[in-house]
Amino acid sequence: MERVRKRDADAFEALYDAYHRLAYGLAMRMLGDASTAEDVTQAVFVKVWSSPELFRTGNFGAWIARVTRNRALDVIRSRTVRAETDLRKRFPNPRASKIRLSRGSIGSSCARRSPRCRTSSAGRSRWASSRA
Fold first, then answer.
1. CA–CA separation, 51 vs 93, rounded Å?
2. What is the Cα–Cα distance from 114 to 117, expressed in whole angstroms?
3. pLDDT in tens, 76-97
4. What are the residue ranges spanned by the domains of the chain?
5. CA–CA separation, 74 and 100 (whole Å)
6. Which CATH number fits domain 2-90: 3.40.190.10, 1.10.1740.10, 3.40.30.10, 3.40.50.1820?
7. Which of 60, 64, 72, 107 is placed for a possible disulfide with 30 were both Cys, Cβ 3.0 to 4.6 Å?
8. 15 phi and psi angles, rounded to 5 deg
9. DSSP letter at 98?
10. In whole angstroms, what is the distance from residue 77 CA to residue 131 CA?
11. Closest listed residue to residue 64, CA positions, set 30, 28, 31, 15
């Protein structure tokens, strides 16, 4: 790592060759998508090259695994936020977008299907009341 800090490209290439499978494998297990796992692996090693001082001492493999894990978690979090934002755009007013069915329309469609589906005056199906 000391050579990488001095911007030795050969040392960085050796580091990449030794640890890229670890980073990719971890990202792939967490994300389940090869393309995204490759993006995370690339981001991790760009970080190593651009900020080598972040690794101080210790086990480099454990450190690179932690950096990869954190980056994969960032991707997962951004997916969640993006999904929530997309839902808000598609359904800006959740109360207005609910489908309202009248009790009569449900009952009439039920009556056409099966006698077991017909509702009693108590609102329970005859099938359910005979089982109770």
1. 45
2. 5
3. 998 877 767 766 777 666 565 4
4. 2-90, 101-132
5. 39
6. 1.10.1740.10
7. 72
8. -65, -45
9. -
10. 46
11. 15
Six token digits for residue 17: 């060759």
What is the maximum alpha-carbon separation in the chain?
83
Q: What Cα–Cα distance (Å) separates residue 80 from each residue in 76, 85, 87, 93, 94? A: 6, 9, 11, 20, 19
47: its two tokens: 């970080």
Of 41, 38, 67, the closest CA to residue 52 belongs to: 67
Q: Coil, strand or helix: which one is 61?
A: helix
pLDDT given for residue 81 in this prediction: 74
**Average pLDDT of the chain?**
80
pLDDT for residue 51 is more than 50: yes
